[in-house]
Amino acid sequence: MTILDGKKISNDIKNEIADEVTKMKAKGEKVPHLAAVIVGNDGASLTYVGSKVRACERVGFESTMVRLSNTTSEIELLDKIYELNDNPDIDGFIIQLPLPPQINTQKVLMAVDPDKDVDGFHPMNFGKMALDMSTFIPATPFGILELLDRYNVETKGKHTVVIGRSHIVGRPMSILMGRRGFPGNSTVTVTHSHTKNITQITSQADIIISALGVPNFLKAEMVKDDVVIIDVGITRVPDDNAPKGYIITGDVDFENVSKKASFITPVPGGVGPMTIAMLLKNTLLARELHRQKQ
After folding, report:
1. Which sites bind NADP(+) (predicted)?
2. 160 and 86, same domain (yes or no)
3. Which of 56, 57, 75, 3 is nearest to 268 (CA)?
4. Which ranges of the chain does DSSP label H, i.e. alpha helix?
5. Percentage above 70 pLDDT, the chain
6. Residue 166 marked as a ligand binder
7. For the chain, what is the mean pLDDT?
8. What CA–CA distance (Å, rounded) separates 24 from 32?
9. Residue 181, Ramachandran bin (φ over 0: left; ψ between -120 and 50: alpha; else beta)
10. DSSP assignment of 136-147
11. Which residues are CB-contacts of 158 (< 8 A; sequence separation ≥ 6)?
C-alpha cells in the first residue's frame, strides 16, 4: 500500500513554481498576482484565504486580500469583481465561498472574467474542460490529477467510481477521468445520494474518488483488493480527547480500507494541500495567458 502524500507533492509543486518566479524576477518580468475576495467573517473561510496568502508569499507571488463586510450587497460585490476584472496588475482572483444569503452565488461567479477565473468555476472554463480544451481546471480536481500523475497510478481502462456530483469536485472529476490521455481513459460511474446498491458498484471499482462529506462512509467491505482510494472528504468530528475538541475525518474508514488499497490518500495531508498548490499553478498559467495577449 502506497500513501498518496499530498503534503509532499504540494511542496514539490510550490518549489517548482518558486523557481519559475525566481527566473521571472531575474529577467525583470512581472510576477503572478493573485487576489482573494472574502465576504463576511466565516472562520473557516478566513483560515483558508489566509493559507492562500501565505502560499503566495512562499512562492514569490504578489497577493491581495479584499475583505468585505457580511452586509455587502450583491451590487457592491459585483462592482468589486468588475474592478478586479479591469485591473491589469491582477492575473487571477477567487471569490471565497460560501457567500452571504443576500448574494446570488451563480451570478457572482458568472461575473468573473474567465481569463482570471483561477478557481475554474466559470461556465466557459467548465465547458472548455468538458471539451478537452486548454483551460483552468478547478483546483481540487486538478490536484487529484496531479497526484495520480506523479505517483504513476494507472487509469487507462480502469473502472473509476466517483461518489458525489458537486460542481466543485464530483462532476468535474467524472469528466476528467473519462477524458483521453493520462490521467484519464477510464470508465466512469457517478454515484450520489439517490444511488441504490452503492456497495455493489464500489466493490467493482478499480479507483474510487469520494467527495461526499460523510465521515467514514466508505468501509472495507465496500471495496475490492488493490483499489485506489482518493478521499476528498473533510469533516470536523467532535472529540473531547483531541486538543482542539475535534478531529478531521475523511469519507473513508482509513484504518481498515488502507489494508486493502494499493494507493490511498490520507486525511488530512492528501488532497487538501494539493488544492492550494494547484490554485498557484492556475495563477501561473493565468499570468502566462495575459503575457501572451500583450
Report:
1. 164-166, 234
2. no
3. 3
4. 6-26, 43-59, 74-86, 105-111, 123-130, 139-150, 170-177, 198-202, 254-257, 271-293
5. 100
6. yes
7. 95
8. 9
9. left
10. PPPHHHHHHHHH
11. 186, 187, 206, 207, 228
Q: Is 164 annotated as a binding residue?
A: yes
Mean pLDDT of 157-175: 96
CA 278 to chain centre: 7
Mind listing the pLDDT tens digit for each residue in 111-128? 999 999 999 999 999 999
Domain that holds residue 84: 27-113
- Per-residue cell: 28: 525583470
What is the torsional sign of CA 36, 132, 152, 257?
Answer: positive
d(CA 51, CA 71): 24
Q: Is 210 annotated as a binding residue?
A: no
43 is in an annotated binding site: no
Phi first, then psi: what are they for 286, rounded to 5°?
A: -65, -40
pTM, to two decimals:
0.94
The residues carrying an active-site annotation are 52, 96, 119
- The whole-angstrom separation of Cα 223 and Cα 230 is 13
Say how many domains are in the chain.
2
Say if residue 294's pLDDT is above 80. Answer: no
- 146 and 231 inside one domain: yes
Are 68 and 126 spatial neighbours (Cβ–Cβ below 8 Å)?
no
Question: Same domain for 262 and 170?
Answer: yes
Query: At residue 210, does pLDDT exceed 80?
Result: yes
Per-residue pLDDT of 76-103, as tens digits, reads 999 999 999 999 999 999 999 989 999 9
